[in-house]
Write the structure tokens for this entry.
Amino acid sequence: MATNKNINRIKVVLVEKKKTNKWLADQIGKDQATVSKWCTNTTQPTLETLVETARILEVDIRELLVPTDNQKIMMTIL
């Protein structure tokens, strides 16, 4: 049974940076539909693409990923 979980935060970071799916698609050389699927967590980018996306958006790659439960607990404690 497949569950549709939110794995990445690309859409959130794009909003924070005031950028669009089209802008990211142009920057990374991908189709806008592909980037849209990443933003809706329908599909996921490769690790290499995620690294490139973080570089383009000028964020730490960890900001593009939904934290695990352990990371959430640690962030709450800190």
